[in-house]
Design brief:
Two copies of one chain form a homodimer. In chain A, 37% of the residues lie in helices and 27% in strands. The first copy, chain A, is of the alpha/beta class and 252 residues long. Chain A has a six-stranded mixed sheet with strand order 2-1-3-8-7-6, sandwiched between helices. In chain A, strands 10-11-9-12 form a four-stranded antiparallel sheet, covered by helices on one side. Chain A has a two-stranded antiparallel sheet with strand order 4-5. Chain A folds into two domains: 160 residues, Molybdenum Cofactor Biosythetic Enzyme, Chain A, CATH 3.40.980; 76 residues, ACT domain (Alpha-Beta Plaits), CATH 3.30.70. In chain A, a hairpin with an 8-residue loop joins β6 and β7. Chain A is elongated and about 70 Å long. Chain A has nine helices and twelve strands. The longest helix of chain A has 17 residues. The interface between A and B is large, with 59 and 59 residues.
Amino acid sequence: MDTEKPVTACLLIIGNEILSGRTQDANLSYIAKVLNEVGVRLMEARVIPDVAETIVATVNEVRAEFDYVFTTGGIGPTHDDITSECVARAFGVPLILHPEAKALLEAGYKPGELNEARLRMAHVPEGAALVKNPVSRAPGFRIGNVFVMAGVPQIMRAMFDGIRHELKGGRPVQSRTVACHLAEGTFAKDLGDVQGRYPDLEIGSYPFYRQGQFGVSLVLRGTDAARLDEAAGDVAAMIRRLGGSPIEETAT
Amino acid sequence: MDTEKPVTACLLIIGNEILSGRTQDANLSYIAKVLNEVGVRLMEARVIPDVAETIVATVNEVRAEFDYVFTTGGIGPTHDDITSECVARAFGVPLILHPEAKALLEAGYKPGELNEARLRMAHVPEGAALVKNPVSRAPGFRIGNVFVMAGVPQIMRAMFDGIRHELKGGRPVQSRTVACHLAEGTFAKDLGDVQGRYPDLEIGSYPFYRQGQFGVSLVLRGTDAARLDEAAGDVAAMIRRLGGSPIEETAT
């Protein structure tokens, strides 16, 4: 049984456009899946508006509570991009022009194009290390346990892929999925019994509707492959006992 | 200028399946758009795991901070569905079998099918009012300023459509969108000046890539249609002045 203390993370999705319903977040699930692979557990995500006081207070709250904090959004050149200055305020350090970030931007713009607004993107909190942006140059940064990334999914992914090796995780979280066409209420009690026998695993029950049929995916998560296989076997046996046909799925 | 105090809301998305990256949330944007229509501002959303202490603490934190709280997920019949009991704990009241909820379930199952697990779905915190579920019977509920709904999008939407008339909002939030193919860095300073002249509006700048072209949507939000039209005109004029072609969009 795994008694290792899990390494935890919180994601801050910063942007009015998510809270207004205009834009659908596409970063949470990508980040979550990579974190599973490196053994870091995403324990919470918050969507917060482009309001300085909210960003500063939230960054300070969650960086104390979780091992890692990732932020997406608000690091562009316009007036509503206030994440960098808010993170600087949260850490109590000045926002400074980073020479390497400035050089990166200079290399990408024609003479005269690197105006004051664009130069804002070369400012980071004092003491921060740059997070590379292979897509559009303007970097993110890391300060303490907080990684600040772009909101545009293509850029965020490229940034995140570049920093994943810096994360010190525990054992990777693996999963097993067994689906069936029984109703949840039919197996709920028995599934609870399986969960009771495997307190080291997390067993979830997720109804779905596809190809014209209702069904339920039973998802088992944990860090011990042998325990997962054993528990997945118990779940399959339970389904058969209740008159269903277990379907092992590779997708998690 | 609108000096009315905004009516605020927080959404709690409860479920390990969102935090693991397995399931993409589809409820936030629906709820946000309806809230805009009824004049309620979604100020924050949190995704939290199926962990009782986290749910109880978070419900208590946000119900004190916002006018309305909506929760999605965790009200089914399986062991990982713990939202109802956690909300009861948060309010310091017992979880009781609601006679009307029981009758609703009884009407939908064949004799013998309404087992103990399914009866869990007829339990609500004492003092709660039911939220109807026209899709699959098992109701949500409202207690105080907290509305508890299903996580399955079809069911959540049906529940939310049934309660929206109960929400006492302020003036509905409207928006105007003007797109262009200028780079953000080109207009950032001027757009900041426009924002400075309209402190009662919220102006956001959102890059996009579609039909093979990069562009930016400038979105103006506020409660005063005349001010929005005036500011959108200023934004369009700014785009023309900088050599671009403003594109008015109806989608927000």
